[in-house]
Write a structure and sequence with these properties.
By secondary structure, this protein is mainly alpha-helical.
Length: 127
């Protein structure tokens, strides 16, 4: 893995992707805030935030934001593995049902600790 000044792993986190050092902010969150993938952007604003604005909004140094963007653009396997794990968990718990948002109690399934552990395991990325 490349050496980063502002990014680090979080050993106790279920996420394998890197975080901004000293924070609980995943690099991907910063990247999404600077792209059209930002689901928190105001609906009538078609422009993604600039790295300067994201740094200001999150109280981060600009070089940390730029490093997070660079890391995410490199297509790290950890992010793909995080997505895959979340999709498995959402599917197994019923959250992917199209009607879930209208009646979550009807569709949500509680997973046992064993199911959770099995679905969370990912042998493709060490960590």
């Amino acid at each position: 893995m490349a050496s980063y000044r502002f990014l680090e792993q979080r050993p106790r986190s279920p996420y394998r992707q890197l975080f901004i050092k000293g924070t609980g902010i995943r690099a991907e969150v910063i990247y999404r805030a600077c792209t059209a993938l930002d689901e928190f952007r105001v609906a009538d604003d078609d422009n993604p935030r600039t790295p300067d604005r994201v740094a200001q909004d999150y109280g981060l140094p600009l070089p940390a934001v730029l490093e997070a963007i660079e890391y995410c653009r490199s297509g790290p396997a950890e992010i793909a593995a995080d997505y895959a794990r979340e999709e498995r968990l959402m599917e197994a718990s019923g959250m992917n049902n199209p009607d879930y948002k209208n009646d979550p109690k009807r569709f949500y399934r509680i997973l046992s600790p064993q199911q959770w552990a099995e679905l969370s395991r990912d042998e493709s990325v060490s960590g």
